[in-house]
Specification:
By secondary structure, this protein is mainly α. Helix content is about 45%, strand content about 10%. It contains three helices and two strands; from the N terminus they run H-H-H-E-E. A two-stranded antiparallel ribbon has the order 1-2. The longest helix is centred in the N-terminal third of the chain and has 14 residues. It is globular and about 35 Å long. The termini are far apart.
């Protein structure tokens, strides 16, 4: 059985918080550096998780402003 890559586990954790309403539109997500410490991984792993969430339209990242929950969250599928 293949293990789920860490970046996907992180993305799923954040996705669940957004879709369950614990993170709301406009909320700022923790910095890449902070999450990499929490998850004991490299910043690149966190960035990959954030990129996946951005592709899904759940978060928006802007240089110098961090990553925030998107203004309109797509309905859970």
């Amino acid at each position: 059985m293949d293990e789920i890559p860490l970046y996907q586990q992180i993305a799923e954790s954040i996705r669940r918080e957004i879709l369950e309403g614990r993170l709301k539109a406009g909320d700022r997500l923790p910095s890449v550096r902070l999450l990499s410490t929490r998850w004991n991984c490299t910043p690149g792993t966190i960035q990959r998780a954030y990129n996946e969430l951005a592709r899904e339209g759940l978060v928006v990242s802007r240089a110098g402003q961090g990553t925030r929950v998107a203004g309109i969250v797509p309905p859970a599928q």
